[in-house]
Amino acid sequence: MGARLGANEFLANRKYIMDTLALFGIFFPLGYRWGRTGRVSGSGPAVCVILACWTVFISYVLINVLRGVTVELPGGGRICMDGMGTLRLNCHYNTTGALEMLFFLVSLALALSRKGLLPKAAFGLASAIHYTALVLSNSRTAYVSALFGFVGIVFVYVRRSVCRGKRVRRLLSEAAVIALLAAGFYLMRGALYSLLRGGSSQLREVIDSTTASFTGRTDIWAGALRIMVSDIQYLLFGVTPAEVRGLIQELLGYRVYTHNQFLETGVALGAPAMLALGVWVLMILASGVRQIKAGDRQAYVSVILILTLLLANTTEATLMFYEYATGHAFFLLCGRVYGKTLRNEDLSKTGP
Amino acid sequence: MAQGRDAQTKSARLKRVFGPGTLQALGVFAGAWHFVMSLLKRFTEVSPLRYAELGLFFILGAAAVAWYMLYRPKIRVKAVPAILLGLLGWFALSCA
Predict the structure, then answer these.
(1) What is the C-alpha to C-alpha distance for residues A44 and B72, in angstroms, rounded to an integer?
(2) ipTM
(3) Per the CB < 8 Å rule, is A270 touching B57?
(4) What tens digit of pLDDT does each residue of A196-246 get?
(5) How many CB atoms lie within 10 A of CB B46?
(6) What is the DSSP letter of A70?
(7) What helix, strand, coil percent values describe chain A, rounded to 5?
(8) What residues make up the domain containing B83?
(9) How many domains does chain B have?
């Protein structure tokens, strides 16, 4: 329906189809099983192995790029600091930031939730390494999202011990804790950057040089909307993910994706799919909020991570189609929230 | 009688092989594979491994069908998975 190439669109979209199948058919059901039963056999070691391997790789990258050495990859790719002093893992710096934001928050949540000094120290070290890579990526969207996730996750662990007393006093102390955490996290970026790169003025230059990208994004968003409404077929069925960049290039002169997950879905699959995805996300969030109201701390962390990923994807499109780790985590967490909802429903019917 | 008992034993053996644990373990393996591939493909050309991934998906699909045939769970139609299936169908319609 959305075909433009004249070729087989299933073949043209094979990698997007595979990613969607993995997200809907593997990660969401695994998350569902996790939420429904409380555990999924084999998932704990799998998460630890992936996290450990990626942390070792990022440590190797950081040791090299901070010494000015370029990391050569088997496929011919290179990892180094680019001309703007930005770390790129052979991809766009915002993608690098989104990946490292996810690994930072997951290792932070694991460090806070695990018992025992050794796991806490290991996950804490991993979160510090991924935080360093996040700072060096210079991605503002990823950093703001990480700030939101950091404050949300740490707040739930410190709230009980710090915020006490009557209602007004408790609310004031909670607000003070949130403000302190946010300010500390914000200031830490400049401090770490000047420590590693020798002067925060360079960070200011980098931030100033990328400020124009927001203006660029509004142009891309407007262009994406224009594509959607230009043809009733596009509006209903989209142009398929494989065609999005080509159409934007025709319109704006440069090849780029829409930089917003909902718009990307709208242009790729049409307005009904965009609407369905929005409703679906709202339903998951509503379930999560109900679980938080019932005093579930794990659901709180899941919802904070889901909101963090959504926030990061207001100016990115890394949840669907492009095989990003952020999309895998998003659907796993959504499945978990949904599984827990059904588990609670079952418990309320049969009793604990 | 003996035939019925044989069939029961066969079914029990099949259920041991295609239990929910097997499907879950395959799911974890396929998920971890896809995740690692998504990280690796940013750095290297790994197309043979991508085809292996496709094969893994087929195995997982076959295991899911076998699991359904053996257990025939009572399916409750719920909005959340229904919307996901609808989106997948819409994707296919969009490519058609």
Answers:
(1) 29
(2) 0.75
(3) no
(4) 776 555 555 555 555 444 557 888 888 889 988 888 888 888 888 888 888
(5) 16
(6) P
(7) 75, 0, 20
(8) 2-95
(9) 1
